[in-house]
Amino acid sequence: MTDNVGNPDAxxxxxxxxxxxxxxxxxxEQEIADAxxxxxxxxxxxxxxxxxxxxxxxxxxxxxxxxxxxxxxxxHPAGVPGGPGERQRHGGARSMxxxxxxxxxxxxxxxxxxIKAPRIIxxxxxxxxxxxxxxxxxxxxxxxxxxxxxLDEIKxxxxxxxxxxxxxxxxxxxxxxxxxxxxxxxxxxxxKGAMPVIGTNAxxxxxxxxxxxxxHKIPRISVSIDFPTAEGHDEFRGEPGxxxxxxxxxxxxxxxGVGVQINTTVTxxxxxxxxEIHDLAEGLGVDAFHIFMLVPTGRGSDLLEQELPPEEYERxxxxxxxxxxxxxxxxxxxxxxxxxxxxxxLAKAEGKKVTREEYGLDAxxxxxxxxxxxxxxxxVGDIQPCGYFDMQLGNVKEKPFSEIWxxxxxxxxxxxxxxxxxxxxACEYKAVCGGCRARALEITGDYLEAxxxxxxxxxxxxxxxxx
Length: 467
Hints:
Layout: H1 13-20, H2 29-36, H3 104-113, E1 120-124, H4 151-161, E2 168-172, H5 182-192, E3 195-199, H6 207-215, E4 220-224, H7 230-237, H8 242-255, E5 259-266, H9 274-284, E6 288-293, H10 310-323, E7 330-334, H11 339-349, H12 356-359, E8 374-377, E9 383-384, H13 401-407, H14 409-414, H15 422-426, H16 437-444
Parallel strand pairs: 1-2, 1-8, 2-3, 3-4, 4-5, 5-6, 6-7
Antiparallel strand pairs: 8-9
Helix pairs in contact: 4-5, 6-8, 10-11
């Protein structure tokens, strides 16, 4: 399988971000208020909320509690760092004293440029893979790929990155464990002050590999499980036996003290099985469960007919909001910017405000972070806002990463929410959602156009924003 930011195996990032409890680099209430103001208006910063509700019955699992785990009677699963309901999940990096994008270089960079430093970088260190997954962004296959960055080139890029930030670096692929120098890359990231994590399909995780993960201080791996049984998962992943191999790899990693996050790409093929996959994850005793909504790029474009219709997308995310309340896992949708609108709509219907005290990091971040605090580096050194976003903004072999991050017109466009078009531009939730810019690019050819898979109509939307 491929494990890149375009696929969920590459995203232990946001869960780790939640564990650090760091809200530097996220939105302020005033920024959100400004974005929620009518066209041409000025916002007033107040506690966040939304409007409207879609009811959904949820099958409970485990002990019933009110509110989100992590707070007595409520709160987001991430908890509030330092608060009375805080949980330290296995594999969390906060206990290691690491704050992505919170180091002196990052703070100096933002002071100097007015641009937030990258906090999370997904790095496809190889495109080679031992599986052939249906939803693979990179359309990876087994075998060497021409032009992949050498170890020396990777070290040089890391040297440049740490001049402006101390990010989480997600080592992904392809299958990153197929790269023989992966442990040298891991050690070099640590040495320079970044935090490496690994996105893997786990089929290659043996006792020896897990021992190396622990010895080289990998706090967490993420693994995709897309069906609750071997039959569906193996067919989706293109390899008989890979379900059992992945489950065994997860168990081995846990035995050696490496944290595990399970991710699921949601399509028409498995939307009715997400609750079962969650329960499988819970039964395995993993630390986190993330669901990802398919973006049809790479091999995933062949699954266009299996992408959920907008109404079903909404239903799954509404289910996720309610299921979080009883889940013992750190459970959240990722690559699902609509979720941050839905949180506010459902919270308001429950008479709540979306505050950090109640909802943790979900109150302090936004849906799409591409080009804002997150980006993707391909196996040949191309930089993109994310792995789904099929546009190369520069190459680290030709120009330093730090210059591309600072100077790219596309990155700077993505940082300016006022440039969003259509109903996204008029939406009162654009600062907390932003729509999927990769999906807009793929379907309309314009990354600033309205999110094609959103059912929400902003109040008073008439088809134009007068500005």
